[in-house]
Structures are given as structure tokens and as C-alpha cells.
Amino acid sequence: MNRLHCIPFLVALSFLPACGKEQNPAKTGSSAKPEVKQGEPPKQGETPTKEATQGARPKREGPAAGTISKPPSFARWVSTGETEGYYQTAVAHYEDAQGRSVDLIGAVHIGDRAYFEALNKLFTKYQALLYELVAKKGTIPAKKHKSSSPISMLQRFMTQALDLRFQLDGIDYKAKNFVHADLSPEGFAKKLKEKGLTFTTMMLKVMLRGMQQAQEGKGPQITIFHILAGALSEDGPRYFKFLFAQQLGNLEQMLANFGGKKGEKSVIIGERNRVAFKVLDQQLKEGKSRLGIYYGAAHLPYMHDLLGERGFHYVSSTWLTAWDCRLSPEQRARYKALRAKKAARRKAILEKRRRGKKSSARSRADKAK
Asked: How many other CB atoms are there within 10 angstroms of residue 363's CB atom?
């Protein structure tokens, strides 16, 4: 049964840098509901509340005083059934001896509407929110703007196919505390050229690495039969989300392996991270003490080290659900009834065959007499 080797490449699009077209100059400046414990999904059949779905008050992880040697997890897939689960990104909290704090906020560029709503609410708590966007300084992405970037076009295609929302449409980039912290398109191209790469060769590298991982059998098996099952299913978008979301964790390692253990030698991760931290250093110098960095989850292990170099230590993490691939109670009941019907049909067929074999054996015995 052949795997679809293009799947990791398609999923890679949810982590590749979003690109924006220059619009207007950006402004820069300054309950008792059930919790989702780390690694513990909601009970089967339970309708998740908004807080539970978004992981609003999950169990915190990591030592109280944290160490910088080993980064925490920044993304995870939680299975809640045979064909369901949810993919989450972390909000990792760091502090230094001066009482200043920095949160590393993992991004996936296409996600559920509720995911981006939760992020917009979270971002209001920071004096400065540093964000990634390969665009000219001061760019504010226009909602519903149809970028000519190949990456953005493919990402938008995936949002339609999977019933998700695109980051540039879901995030409020006009917020006063938003600070651009990324390369410009010209800077990005220049850094690629210095390493003997172009945008096209970088994309090919992503695709080839994904195909290599697929051939090595890493990650869940996705075959043409899974795709056909999704196409014929009444909840096709949810099922495709389930298939693709399981690949996202593997993608982080695929991107990080481009150069150095954590991507520090690559352009797509290392160079962009260093640009972001130059902006962070400036914000700290200006006296900001409560900051957030909103970047793709694959960037965060190296950012963890960069924070350590600046005297910040990891404290704890909370989680946001980016892709909710769980069945509703009604869907789960229908699937259960369908499985029971198939099991009964199979049992009837096997019983019929058993009786047929028994009847044939009697006939042969009668003839032998």
C-alpha cells in the first residue's frame, strides 16, 4: 500500500513563513470550567467548552525555576479515538532575574477560527507582541487580501479544503502592541543567496525532505485509501484535518533539521530568529517587561536557547488547540451505530458461510454412504 509522499509537503505549508504585501504602516508600541490537563484529553462524548477546547487552564509543565538546557514541547498531537484527536501549540512562559517575562507563542498558519480568536485575546496582555511576517517593515496584512506569494496561495487552498482559517485573516495585525520582527522579502532572498539557495530550491528541499521521511516510514501512514475514505465521508474536512494534523509534529523536526540541531544554521529558522531577537533586545532596552513572540512552532526550540543566552529561564506552558479534529457527540453516536451495523453484517456473513460449509460436509458424508 503506497504512501502519499506529497502529504508532508502539503502539511509543511502550515509552518512555512506567511508573506504579506505592503499595505499601511504598522503601529507599534506598547471561571470554574473543566481544565484540560497536559496529555489528558476530554472524555469521549463530552462537548468541550471553549476554555477546554482552547486549553485555557491546563496543567502547567516544567520545573518552577526551569533550566535552559532542554526546551519544552511546543506542539503536540493528542489522540482521543481511532479517527479523532486535536493538535495544540504551546504558550511557553519565561522569566529573568529582573522579573521581566517573555512568552514564546507557537504558531501554525492555518487553524480553527476559535484558535485565532483565543490568540487575539491572549495578545492583548503583552506590552509588545513580536510577530513573524516576511514583509517590509511597517506592513499590516489586509484581511482577505489575495497575496501572490506561492506559499500564501497554497496555504489558502488548504484552508478551503480543510474548513480552516488562514492566519493573515484571523489575526488582528492592527493591534497597537504589535511589532514586526522578521526579514523583509529582499532580506530573505539575500540570506538565501548567501547560502547558495533560492526560494524555489528551498521549497524543493522541504518537499524532498518530506518525501524522504515518508519513504522511511516516519509518522502515521496515509494512503490513497485514506484520501478516498475522506472524499466519500459526510465529514470529509474533519477527517482530512485528522489525517494531516498527525503529520504536523513530524514537520517540526523536518524543518529544524535544515541546518543545526534546532535549525540555527538555516535561513528559514536561524536567520529569522536572530532578526526577531534583535527586535526583542530593543524592546527590552526600551523598558518593556511583558513581551510575547508569536512565531511558527518550529522556530521555538532555537528561540528557547536564545532566551537562555539572555538570562531567561523556562517556567511553564499552557496550550491552545489549533486543529480540533474530534467528533461531535452526534457524529460519534452515528459512527458507533454504523460500526455496530457493519459488525452485525459481518457476523451474519460469517454465520452463513459456516452453515454452508456444514451443509456441504453433510452432503459429502451422505454421498460417501
From this structure: 10
Rounded to whole angstroms, how far apart are CA atoms 281 and 100? Answer: 12
SS3 (DSSP) at 268: helix
Position with higher pLDDT, 343 vs 35? 343
Amino acid identity of residue 361, one-letter, is A
* Mean of pLDDT values over 242-271: 74
b/e per residue, 179-210, with b = 16+ CB within 10 A? bbbbbbbebbbebbeeeebeeeebbebbbebb
Kindly indicate the confidence band of residue 138, based on its pLDDT and cuts at 50, 70 and 90: confident
Does the pLDDT value for residue 340 go beyond 70?
yes
CA distance 293 to 276: 8
Q: How far apart are CA 266 and CA 260, in angstroms?
A: 7
Q: For the residues 305-317, what does the mean pLDDT come to?
A: 95
In Å, how far are 64, 127, 195, 255 from 267, measured between CA atoms?
A: 34, 28, 8, 11
Secondary structure tally for the chain: helices H, strands E: 12, 9
Q: How far apart are CA 90 and CA 8, in angstroms?
A: 22
The model's pTM: 0.71
Q: Residue 118, exposed/middle/buried by CB under 10 A (0-12, 13-18, 19+)? A: buried
Q: How confident is the model at residue 98 (pLDDT cuts 50, 70, 90)?
A: very high
Give whichever of 69-78, 111-120, 190-199, 243-252 has the largest mean pLDDT: 111-120
- Rounded to whole angstroms, how far apart are CA atoms 279 and 334? 52
Q: Which residues of 122-158 are buried (b: 16+ CB within 10 A; e: fewer)?
A: bbeebbbbbbbbbbbeebbbbeeeebebebbebbbeb
Closest CA to 18 of 274, 323, 304, 294: 294
Coil/strand/helix, residue 84: strand
- Give residue limits of the domains in the chain: 7-30+52-327, 329-369
DSSP string, 106-170: EE-SEE-HHHHHHHHHHHTT-SEEEE--BS-TT--PPTT-----HHHHHHHHHHHHHT-EEHHHH
Q: How many CB atoms lie within 10 A of CB 101?
A: 17
Count CA atoms closer than 13 A to 96's CA, side-chain side. 17
Lookup result for grid cell 509543565: 61
